[in-house]
Amino acid sequence: MDSALTFPTALRELLRTHQTFLSYAASHVHTLDLTLPQFDIIITLGNTAGINFKILGEKTLITKGTLTGVISRLEDKGLVQRVASETDGRSQIVQLTEAGKDLYQRTFPEHLAFIYRIFNDYSPEDIATLEATLLRLRKAVIAARSNESEQLVEETDQ
Amino acid sequence: MDSALTFPTALRELLRTHQTFLSYAASHVHTLDLTLPQFDIIITLGNTAGINFKILGEKTLITKGTLTGVISRLEDKGLVQRVASETDGRSQIVQLTEAGKDLYQRTFPEHLAFIYRIFNDYSPEDIATLEATLLRLRKAVIAARSNESEQLVEETDQ
DNA sequence: TATTGTTATACTCTATAACTATA
DNA sequence: TATAGTTATAGAGTATAACAATA
């Protein structure tokens, strides 16, 4: 036991929980011959008419330079396509192709089912509680991140 | 097509929560000039006398080939050192150097404090509930992972 | 001038397999 | 034969900055 630590060690487990979960989720995604960022793009585009690079990057937390490469690889796989924006000549819309839509509709429920195996011993109420807990956590992280970036903006001069 | 999703879309938020959290945690770790896997090694080695590659890989979910590179980079930074095992000629023990211990003792509490900013609006009971929820989730993921593949990772409780 | 997306660079992580040296 | 760790390889993501086209 780490009794020397003055901070709750359970928070170390929080980090480990996230890591373990991501590793588990990735093991399914890799069976689709996709990376986690690539699958993230697919499910973000799912059930939309297309999203431009700027918004897509904000939603997936992938910076623009990286996003160009990720989208190009998905394009090479025939899963997404670039379409010029009609309202802004600088902007490119990223859409799922028909193959991409097929993949999304086939694998997203499959992915959720894979995730659901985790919850064998959970009651429906347990799952609802977990989802509410995580949603609140997500909002709290976003709030903290906002405060952080404000501080970073203030510190940009070093 | 709107009824195509038979699974709660809230689980999509679960993925996003993990991602958002990791991104937030990474933003602090990067200020230490460390990557997330490197920091993971540091906090795993913290308050231990050293761990060999095999166990270290199991704890951090980094495969051996990758681990060699990660440890070498940390060695280049003077934060860890390799020590030959006295009982097994094949085995290398990885330890924090004095600089590594300093870093750990200075930054782990700092990291937890950074994480704690998320919980501004949480009561102590809320935090306890969240920790219990996540610990249960972690155990459930490990159980699902065990069922999924034959290569079981022996988890040591802390 | 500011913004959108691309290109270029250098680094790190990842998975995999072949390899060595011990056991 | 099996195991612990290294090396080699190819691919992918990351941050960062410079850049072109458009607003």
Strand order of the largest sheet of chain A: 1-3-2
Low-confidence blocks of residues of chain A: 1-9, 152-158
Query: What helical percentage do the residues of chain A reach?
Result: 55-70%
Secondary-structure element sequence of chain A?
A: HHEHHEEHH
CATH superfamily of the largest domain in chain A: Winged helix-like DNA-binding domain superfamily/Winged helix DNA-binding domain
Largest interface: A-B, 58 and 57 residues
Structural class of chain A: mainly alpha
Number of DSSP helical runs of chain A: 6
CATH level 1 class label of the largest domain in chain A: Mainly Alpha
Strand content of chain A: 5-15%
Query: Which CATH-level-2 architecture of the largest domain in chain A?
Result: Orthogonal Bundle
Overall, the morphology of chain A is globular
Q: Taking Cα atoms only, what radius of gyration of chain A do you get, to the nearest Å?
A: 19 Å
Summarize the structure in words:
Two copies of one chain form a homodimer. The first copy, chain A, has 158 residues and is mainly alpha-helical. Chain A folds into two domains: 10-120, Arc Repressor Mutant, subunit A; 121-158. Chain A has helices at 10-29, 36-45, 53-60, 64-76, 98-116, 124-154; strands at 51-52, 80-84, 92-96. In chain A, strands 1-3-2 form a three-stranded antiparallel sheet. Chain A is globular, with a radius of gyration of 19 Å. The N and C termini of chain A lie far apart (40 Å). Mean pLDDT of chain A is 83; it is low at 1-9 and 152-158. Chains A and B meet through helix 1, helix 5 and helix 6 of A and helix 1, helix 5 and helix 6 of B. Chains A, B: This is MarR family transcriptional regulator. Chains A, B: It holds the Pfam family MarR. Chains A, B: Keywords: DNA-binding, Transcription, Transcription regulation.
